[in-house]
Amino acid sequence: MSRFARAIVLAAAALSIGCYIGASLLVWAMTGPDAAHRFASVGLAARLGPATQQRGEHVAAALQSAIGSLDRSRAGAGPYGAEFGERIREARAILRRGLTVAPLDAKGIEQLAAVNWEISAFNGVVDDDVRLILLAATRSPRQAELQFDVGSLLLRLAHTDDALRYLDVAVNLDAGLSDKVVAALHDQSLAPEEILRSIPGVPAIAIALRSGFLERDEADAYLAELERLFRDHPAELMRFYENTAFITGRSERALAFLGSVDLHARPALEAEKRFATAHARLALGRAREALNEIDAALLAKPDVPEFTELRADCLLQLGRASEAAASYKDAIHQAVAANWSAAVRARLYHSLASAYRADSRGDLAYDSLRRALDLAPDDSAIRAEMDSVSGRALGKSGDR
Known about the structure:
Elements: H1 3-31, H2 43-48, H3 52-74, H4 82-101, H5 106-123, H6 130-139, H7 144-156, H8 160-173, H9 178-186, H10 192-198, H11 203-208, H12 210-215, H13 219-230, H14 234-247, H15 251-259, H16 267-283, H17 287-300, H18 305-317, H19 321-337, H20 342-358, H21 362-375, H22 380-399
Helix pairs in contact: 1-4, 3-4, 4-5, 5-6, 5-7, 6-7, 7-8, 13-14, 14-15, 14-16, 15-16, 16-17, 16-18, 17-18, 18-19, 19-20, 20-21, 21-22
């Protein structure tokens, strides 16, 4: 390597080191020095900046100790807050040291912002830690949990508009966070309809808000919101919409709405619509119409356990118990192939037992209940029915 090339390499290395040190100093400057912290309890590695996992463990221990100190002070075991302040500052010191070593650690930055907020609130002055929070979020734009944490922190700092943007990103990255997002916004005293307007067009948010609407006796308003979203998200909302109409006694409304939705160009969704329509018709006591709908759905999707189970329900309501038993057995086989849970398979065996009983086949009914109880040993309803079937069988043998 020539002397010129070696000089370039050395210069590049020096620049990299300088950038790294500069980033470390930036984080340090944003948090400020605090020489009064005690570090004896966390060890030398934590003082110098431990590995991410170790740092997380030390921070968690310090925060847990802080929370415990508040519990003890409430119980009259010490002066309120003194130990809390010490422990929470200890957590901040660990995070500062860690970020000096790894200044681009987004989770560490986000944790530091949270701890700073707690310290500011404890001292009676809320500092503006939004710089740290936004830095954390921009480091990991695809981490749903981090985006949620950032949104939650911004809510606590009363930066509601900014918070909503991050919460929207979080729930679009991971629909499983919808319950946590709704809970965070509910804690800010937002009504269900306000939450829907704040994070619009997200089916998971609408689904998570069901209990909020129904507790306020606003079923019709809620169904109207679902219908508004349904046009763009039929796959996500089809079954949920019909189930909501069913549990609120509005199956007629569901039939009218589903009848207005044209999905013939999408055969799989059309089959789902027929399934939902069949369930609504059966709920209204129109079993023959329901059977026709579910048979049409099964032509398009013959191996769906829920479809086959609903067909069996229709047959049983029509008094065709033997055919119903055969369909329940088919549904059980499909459920096993689809790896359905033990609880759901127990329900199918329970239904099969009902079909056998209606067909005067008590021995097979008892066997089906036993299989159901093997899958759900804590189900008191199945156990009680087993005892009932067994008692009747014994009574008949005694009469003879």
